[in-house]
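User: Hey, my collaborator sent me this sequence without any context and asked if I could get a structure. I don't really work with proteins. Can you help?
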Amino acid sequence: MNYRIPPYLQPGDKVAIVCTARKFSVEEAQPAIALLESWGLQVVLGQTIGLDNFQLGGTDAARAADLNQQLRDPEIKAIWCARGGYGTVRIIDAIDFSPLEQQPKWLIGFSDVTTLHSHMHNLGLATIHGIMAFSVPSAMEESKTSLYHALFGQPLSYSIEAVNGNRKGSASGVLVGGNLSILYSLLGSESSMDTKGKILFLEDLDEYLYHVDRMMHNLKRNGMLKDLAGLLIGGMTDMHDNSIPFGYNAQEIILDAVKEYNYPVAFCFPAGHGASNWALKLGTIVELEVTDNQVNVAFS
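Assistant: No problem. I've predicted the 3D structure and written it out in structure-token form, which is a compact way to encode the shape of the chain:
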């Protein structure tokens, strides 16, 4: 499949901020608005910003209608999800992605937004895994700068120090993935992606180690780990164990799940729920190189 890359942003372009999951107030949006305006962009707050439906940013109908409106609006060049949590899967089947056939536009977010990344990948659309509007006050400068580079089509490549447990090698392929728990929850649905020949990125937060093991084995049983070109692991943040230890940490669980396959594996990439969340252009080709000393990720 040929993946369509939306036009990169230009100063003056309009970016919409919407809630697909948890609620987000107008006051909370101010740092994100200031950031986008500092980049020369115009900000459009979706109708869900400020809505309060218990945890969610409005009812399912309201959140679906807001996202659909931004997808239809030809003046909107990118859609920035306000925050994650939970709720995107409740509206995914009510979203009309057909306007993107004529006018692809960037969709930005992480965590629960993996539902959209995965579904849009199946439609042949590139998206950006990166900080959300909610993240801006606490986001490190590199995370914000990397999002700017991704959105404006500037060169994007990363080098990090190697860690113990990496598996050396080089790979080239389309980058896919996101939050492990979300990808696991999508298995068997039309939003679950084909990973064959691709570089899979995974990250997660606040999970019990036995559940990480369960999820990795279910990805494996569904064929998502067998024919990868490479595996890139971001933050496995704030993992938990039971009073009787599971016996393996997250890295060991992942290595055990892929031990019979032969492709490079890199851990501790600064993307996900940790302090750093560097932007990744999903649905685009990346070169992954894992050596004794470093890991290089370069986008075409």
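In plain terms: The chain has a mean pLDDT of 98. You can pass these tokens on to your collaborator as they are.
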